[in-house]
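Entry 12.
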Amino acid sequence: MSLKTTYSAVQIQEFMVSNLAEVLETTPEEIDVNEHLENYGLDSAQAMVIISKLENLLGFKPSPVLLWHYPTIAKLAQRLSEENPGKSSTEESKIVAPFLDLGAEVVLDANIIPMGNNKIDVTNPKNIFLTGGTGYLGAFIIKELLAETQANIYCLVRANNVTEAKSKLEKNLQQYAIWDDKYSQRIIPVVGDLAQPLLGISESEFTELSTNIDTIYHSAALLNYVYPYSALKTANVLGTQEVIRLACQNKIKPLHYVSSVAVFESNAYAGKVVKEQDSFDDWQGIFLGYSQTKWVAEKLVKIAGERGLPITIYRPPLIAGDSKTGICNTHDFINLMIKGCLQMGSFPDVDYMLDMSPVDYVSKAVVYLSKQEKSIGQAFHLQHPQPASLKSLVEWIRTFGFKLEMIPYQQWQDDLINNVTDKENPLYTLKPFLLERWSDEQITIPDLYLQARRPIISCEETLKALQGSSIVCPEIDSQLLLTYTSYLMQTGFLSLV
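Predicted 3D structure (tokens):
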């Protein structure tokens, strides 16, 4: 009988520091064991890399939720050192999250009241404030704002100084083939932090911005499918409150908020048609922390609207690559899943609909709609109007030369557990996340997105609002899929070998 090695808190801590530094492409000396892990900006895939490496070291699978109930390396290492290494995988310790009443979370600071009686000009802003400029959708919104307005764009960036912030913006725009030196003077970095009071900006600069800015686009959010609500609240909920504060202070500034169709993830809407202006009062059955924060944050924006702030809400689904170039975020969850399934040689035979919308459609629609006065007070669904089935995607991929089969979901899960042992397969690092059981129903994350559990998102009013703009959502057809596949293969992300 072989005995499993036990590790001290110090040994686990050293291991985590080394591996976190590797994932973040930095040095161990720059890792603070008492810093909240969320402040390192780990995305879902990176978090799963850490989990998988811990599993290999310790001999048992730590629950992904552990990372956020013990939010520093020091605390997590201590907790893991107390774990019994002799437990079987079926005896993993389960953490029961405290009851969360999302309705009680919807509280907007009473001092946030729209100030001033300035005339609102939504069509010709001179100075725009934008969050999310170092993200995927935010980059394409910048592209559209540069093309469709003459405004200067002030971009909130978490950085040590202005030089670093500008470099981050340029690097992000360059990777999506958006950057052009001629726009350099119009893109102005603002060093701050969505998760801090006043957005991490000094009070004097916050006041100056609130006076000079004409319009705000809030597209930033910490997107992670692993974090619970508690770990995302500061950035996604309280950060939204600070953006609303900026919109209301000194003069009224229209707020364009990028929400998500996830606000309708409650099982109360399963199978029902939800329209753009429908209320979304049900939250029971929203399990993902990210979706929970989007529900609360949009409620805060709605309250601001009731207090007199001009608001417009945009709810995209999953955002796919550029329909013309195929350029996309290869590190997002969907691309990693597709790559992993291709390497497995199988997809789960489940009833999924691909309602993804190309990023250029979403960004063009947001900017166009934001410049229409009749959009004030409205919500828009940027859902794909003609989604395709997962089965049709698999069939098309087969024609490209990939050998694939669709197998029952339970068999696919078993294969994932037993056969995906190559660390080069993205699903290897995603295994703990994909197999984790959530809620009293003990369902997995893929279960949440089965068609039977989802609402039918209507975008009829949005399509009417876009009429006459020449903005049309590209069909999910062979041409679009070829564009995406070609890009992913040209970059080396996908391979037939």
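Annotation: Residues 146 and 182 are 10 Å apart (CA to CA). Confidence is low (pLDDT under 50) at residues 86-96.
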